[in-house]
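Handoff note, outgoing to incoming analyst
You'll be picking up this chain. Sequence as last confirmed:
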Amino acid sequence: LDGIAAHIADKPTASAFWAKAALMLEAVGRTFGDGPQGLRSLLACLRECGQTLCGDALWTGPAGRAAAEFLAGYEEEADHGPARVDPAELPALLRSLFDEIAIRAIPREGQHPRLAIYGPIEARLQTADLMIAGGLNEGVWPGRPAPDPWLAPRIRSLLGLVGLEQRIGIAAHDLAQAMGAPRAILTRARRDASGPTLASRFWLRLQAMAGDRFEAHPSLAAWAVELDRPDDYAPVDRPAPRPPATLRPTTISVTEVDRLKADPYAFYARRVLRLSPLDPVDADPSAAWRGTAVHDILEMWWKEDRCDVEALRPRALAMLRDQRTHPMMRALWQPRLIEAIDWIAAEVAAKAGEGRHVLSAEGKGEAKLAGVTLTGRFDRIDKAADGSLVVIDYKTGKPPSTTAVREGFSLQLGLLGLIAERGGFEGVAGKAGGFEYWSLGRGREGLGYIATPVDPDGKRERIRTDEFVSIAAANFAEAAGQWLTGDAPFTAKLVPEYAPYAEYDQLMRRDEWYGRDR
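Most recent structure output, in case you need it:
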């Protein structure tokens, strides 16, 4: 990491990017710098680093689920592998293991009813009037056998294992079966991203045997030209609608402020156009679902048990035993959830010993600010021994970074403190003197840790505690003055680094304009 920083020190744009990226890569750099070590620790470090960089989106879709299963399986069986692995050799090792995994793309709803794109295995199970076999380039079909990282070919043979060359025979079988369709077209790409390509040896053999009968399809070249014709493609500009003042919302929640500032168009689509994405009927449990489940447990723990330490774990187990809980989520999430829940109960008891007790939980309220009604729902508010309020937000993942808070984003805790100080929450009054994220993610000592975006003296580039509420109020007033009471356009992806969600990317036709002005 130090080498990269020194290399780009004289490049301002790259240095600004690296300042943010280095914080995310600090853990992996520290672990990989410790020399040879156990495979389990290296895989765990890679998993946590990937989660930090990409969030839960890293594990979505067929490829993401395959990656999650791969890491979980090899972490579990890591003790049966090499005792110590040099971090420099880990990329080659993972590359060899990844080559053994096939990702099957399943056609989704909305595709053409008469056109389907299959992998070799799916094509075996289907019939079609016209079968187009693509990719007949050297090194692509058939693919080169990946070397076995553990056993030499001779040892595999002595053990009675199938040879690595078996895949070549399977690829030939798949092609022969595809050519059994009523009509078949064999195709290959003359160029790829790296440059000109070579025809596979099978292609050259067919060409030599068929002679003049082996000729190009008369329409393919013309189709390629038409697809690439620039006159038929008119990309749209970045959308920036400017609705009249009568259509602009006058009420906003504290959780929507970041979306308004980072991606005003997404806020416009949700609040002005009233377009909300719908999850598929068979959607897998998401991070949002897990967060809602945890909040429900903690809400009932306060309302019915008044934060009795002994009552929290039974509530979590009851939720997991509920028939509506997804079985896969129950099996995979239960150990992690129970450990995190026990941590919360222990922390609440420890804080009570310091004279701090839970004042209220899962309450909602509002306050008037900058001509707009600001609403908010807090997870928990404690009363400290000195009488000040401590605003707490539960996170099932990683809390917002100090950089995001310093740049005027992730000020939700400050806005909740503002509403509390103005008497907007029933039964809660006083000055906010503490702001904490209680994360159920993995910390240095296990699951669960407390993070704060503030510091009494502003150390570690954090905001001073006594200035946090006023800074949050000023940032909100500025945003409200631009987009809610003003006439600023709702520009799409205004600050893309803080607009990671993609619900409205298709609506804004993001791929047509994003990056063209850079």
